[in-house]
Design brief:
It contains 13 helices and nine strands. The protein is α+β, with helices and mostly antiparallel strands and 364 residues long. The longest helix is centred in the first third of the chain and has 37 residues. The N terminus is likely disordered.
């Protein structure tokens, strides 16, 4: 059996000899503990056994710890030298443990590499992998399209003032949208935005033309949830302001977007409409992606599906943010992301994406 002598330095040995003599009980205890411990370390066959030796000797209730507790009974002049002697024993044991642990760890790793194998043919339970919500998928696709055309993404506030939600957008004081039954008012002057168009005002206030931005986000309406309405839904607002911007530019962009979303054979048409912040204003229809314009249940036999509203930015809106409407023109468009998603995936109930039913989400 391997015997290892204590690594006490010469000075410590001489002082200890003068104080206690050669054969004191403490010396014998420490020498016996050191020799027995190193023998156990040498014979240990795995790291688990080695850990047990560490706990038994150096742990809170270990053998060496018990000896160290007894140092308090020594005389004051004896205690420092005895403590130094005991610490030399501790350092020697810790060094032996570390060296042995390194060798055993290497041996265990070699055995694992040699004998352990993975059977790739074993059947395993399939992992349930999360997927992107269809609304977010259409949002990411739409953002990628407009960014590719040079649009910049601008986030806007969901909690807005009456000024930005209505007044700055040329909405008359008696407009029905200002009624409490249509808009979520927090106070008389603060509300949850009812449209992402509020973002275009803030952008035009701080940015001079040319401007080309989209602003996606949630909007809120005081509606009961049913097959065609939800109190919270998603929109994407688009705005372009520059010299020489026309309705032809607007139609070219929206037609390209419709083809990108649905198919290359998709067509769009403009129908006259009214929005306070655009003049002229239009509703934009796309040829039905299900029947390609021939008429079906989804498009109610018309061959067309409404996808968004748009128009040229009203001169009053430009003047309100300090942009010269005689020099610059612009167009704006706003689309309901929920509606676009419903058209793409054939969803007939607006509540389904809104409620987040796992059975629905597993289909995508």
């Amino acid at each position: 059996m391997k015997k290892t002598q204590t690594s006490f330095n010469i000075e410590t040995r001489e002082i200890f000899k003068r104080l206690f003599g050669e054969n004191t009980m403490l010396t014998e205890q420490l020498n016996r503990l050191l020799n027995d411990t190193t023998a156990l370390i040498d014979s240990a066959g795995d790291t688990k056994t080695l850990y047990g030796i560490r706990v038994a000797v150096l742990g809170k209730n270990g053998s060496l710890t018990g000896i160290l507790r007894g140092l308090k009974d020594l005389k004051n002049e004896e205690r420092p030298v005895a403590g130094k002697l005991a610490n030399d024993v501790r350092e020697t044991i810790e060094r032996e443990l570390a060296q042995k642990e390194e060798r055993l760890s290497d041996e265990e790793m070699e055995r694992r590499l040699l004998y352990e194998k993975v059977d790739l043919t074993l059947d395993k339970k399939p992992f349930i992998v999360g997927k992107i919500h269809p609304l977010n998928a259409v949002l990411k696709k739409s953002v990628a399209f407009f960014v590719g055309l040079g649009f910049r993404v601008e986030e806007s506030r969901e909690i807005e003032t009456v000024y930005y939600n209505f007044d700055a957008l040329n909405t008359a004081p008696d407009h029905p949208a200002r009624d409490a039954q249509d808009t979520f008012f927090i106070t008389q002057d603060i509300l949850l935005r009812s449209q992402t168009s509020t973002g275009q005002i803030r952008v035009m206030e701080k940015t001079r033309p040319p401007i080309r931005i989209i602003s996606p986000g949630r909007v809120y309406r005081s509606d009961e949830a049913d097959a065609t309405h939800t109190p919270c839904f998603n929109q994407i607002e688009g705005l372009v302001v520059d010299k020489g911007v026309t309705m032809c530019d607007l139609k070219a962009v929206l037609e390209s977007y419709a083809k990108f979303l649905f198919s290359d054979c998709t067509k769009i048409r403009f129908r006259p409409s009214y929005f306070p912040f655009t003049e002229p204003s239009v509703e934009v229809d796309a040829s039905c992606p299900a029947c390609h314009g021939s008429g079906c249940r989804i498009c109610k036999g018309t061959g067309w599906i409404e996808i968004l509203g748009a128009g040229m930015v009203n001169r009053n809106v430009l003047k309100g943010v300090g942009i010269d409407s005689d020099v610059y023109t612009g167009y704006a468009f706003g689309m309901g992301l929920n509606r676009i998603t419903a058209i793409i995936h054939g969803i007939t109930d607006a509540r389904v994406p809104f409620e987040g039913d796992v059975r629905f989400l597993k289909q995508f």
